[in-house]
Specification:
The structure is a single chain. 67% of the residues lie in helices and 4% in strands. The protein is mostly helical. It has 2 domains: 369 residues, no CATH class; 103 residues, no CATH class. It has a 5-stranded mixed sheet with strand order 2-1-3-5-4.
């Protein structure tokens, strides 16, 4: 009996292997540095809020929260898994790392449709090296899972249309709604993506405008189903009215000091550090227009690139409209831009390979990776500040308080596993502007009269409290010997001052 001829195994692509090596190196560096990175105050805000819920406090009731509820609910298994802040922080960071890996995988899936295996490896590599993506997806913040659901929606938008179109559009709407219930910052990029999807699909399939409205209705239906389910749960828990007041009304009123200055500063920072990838993204837009004119893109590619470009552009437009243009907002359009950048590099490398062979393409690819990653990685290595001092302060606060006692702080949040003294457990200058000064002053004095308020944490935001409150804080609390400028303990532990 004649044996069947064995098919030769395909040789691994040398260019893909080069990028995989860079990707693994960046991911390993991220894992090593991520667990030792300092704690941002936003991270402690979210962890504290989740912990308060686990101890019976009422979200939007006994404590203020201007974020949607999904992240605080999602953190419940973590804050209930241990009584020690170290474990909570490390487990939350591992969870965020897994979510961030999900973002990289989905981005690779989108890039693979546009640029094959090389693009699939380049997109996550560029994302890991982008400075704002690196910084903010290391942090325990709702923007990270929000972006995951947003890129999942983008992936479904760009996929070839099958027979079950309605089901796909409903799923897209659900993904967008879940992402928005983690972070409303996605609204500008999401609206742009939905509009681009509706128009691009209409052009690709040469259907009537009636199908555009049907697409929009299915997407709205998917989003409404998720919103209705979350609203029903809020009503069941008696939180819906508080949610509207805190997370909707107050959030719309919230601003930061000198937003235009922050906007210019953060744009300049990323434009300098990540100049190469932003330039490649712009080149990608020009390349897409050029190939469209020559009719060298498939309808699926044309549709997907249109969605990426329009959603990135609308996200960038939102940067100039929101009142808090902080680095985490950039996550709304960074993935789209860097997928375009990976497509640009892949197209250029393919052209070089056709003319100069694999060696020339490898040299070009290594050069591109070096240019795109050197400055961002060097910048992140400088920012790898350990958080051991912050943990020491948290442990100090735990040592001088009992679980039933309360801690007053403005913004540091360094009292994880203890309860807040004031409903506005983060009282930075942005929140202080939301409150009526006289009412806030009365409430703070009443809070300081409670015997269970035994500890006070000082930061620069405390200097903006009413003068009478600052004077009373100085009279009531004495500095702790280990941290005399940060931690203060009630002078008369058993009573009021």
């Amino acid at each position: 009996m004649q044996e069947k001829a064995l098919r030769p195994r395909p040789r691994p692509d040398a260019l893909v292997l080069l990028v995989v090596c860079a990707l693994v190196s960046l991911l390993g560096l991220r894992i090593v540095l991520g667990q030792d990175r300092f704690l941002d105050s936003d991270e402690l805000e979210h962890l504290n809020a989740a912990y308060f819920i686990s101890q019976g406090e009422t979200l939007y009731g006994s404590f203020f929260e201007n974020h949607p509820p999904l992240f605080a609910w999602a953190l419940q298994p973590i804050v209930r898994s241990s009584d020690f802040p170290d474990a909570m922080i490390s487990r939350a960071r591992v969870a965020i790392l897994l979510v961030q890996l999900g973002i990289l995988i989905v981005a690779a899936t989108i890039a693979r449709r546009l640029a094959g295996g090389l693009g699939a490896c380049l997109a996550p590599t560029l994302l890991l090296a982008q400075s704002f993506f690196y910084q903010k997806t290391l942090e325990i913040r709702p923007d990270v899972p929000g972006v995951l659901f947003f890129v999942l929606a983008l992936e479904r938008m760009g996929a070839p249309i099958g027979e079950r179109r309605a089901r796909r559009y409903v799923l897209i709407g659900a993904y967008l709604s879940i992402g928005g219930l983690f972070t409303p910052k996605l609204i500008y990029a999401a609206v742009g993506a939905v509009i681009a999807l509706s128009i691009a699909r209409n052009w690709a399939l040469q259907t009537r405008w009636r199908s555009v409205l049907q697409t929009l209705l299915w997407i709205v239906l998917g989003g409404a189903m998720v919103a209705a389910a979350v609203s029903a749960e809020l009503v069941r828990q008696g939180l819906f009215t508080g949610f509207i007041e805190d997370a909707v009304v107050q959030s719309l009123r919230m601003t930061i000091d000198n937003a235009a200055w922050f906007r210019r500063g953060f744009i300049a920072a990323t434009a300098g550090t990540d100049a190469a990838t932003w330039c490649l993204s712009i080149v990608g837009v020009g390349l897409a227009l050029h190939l469209c004119r020559r009719d060298r893109l498939t309808s699926t590619q044309r549709c997907e690139i249109t969605i990426l470009i329009v959603s990135a552009a609308s996200g960038m437009l939102g940067l100039f409209m929101i009142e808090a243009p902080l680095p985490q907002y950039f996550l709304c359009f960074i993935p789209q831009c860097l997928i375009l950048a990976s497509w640009t590099i892949s197209s250029a490398v393919a052209e070089i390979r056709a003319r100069f062979g694999t060696l020339g393409a490898s040299a070009a690819l290594v050069s591109a990776l070096a240019i795109c990653t050197y400055l961002p990685v060097r910048d992140q290595l400088k920012r790898a500040n350990p958080y051991h001092r912050q943990l020491d302060i948290i442990h100090t606060v735990r040592a001088v308080t009992r679980p039933e006692q309360r801690v007053f702080a403005c913004w540091s949040g360094l009292y994880l596993t203890r309860l807040p003294a004031y409903r506005y457990f983060f009282l930075n200058s942005d929140v202080q502007r939301l409150l009526e000064p006289e009412k806030m002053e009365r409430e703070l004095h009443a809070m300081l009269s409670r015997v269970e308020v035994t500890t006070y944490l000082h930061d620069r935001n405390c200097n903006e409290l009413p003068q009478s409150v600052r004077q009373r804080l100085r009279r009531t609390f004495a500095p702790h010997p280990d941290y005399p400028h940060l931690v203060f303990v009630r002078r008369s532990p058993g009573g009021v001052d």
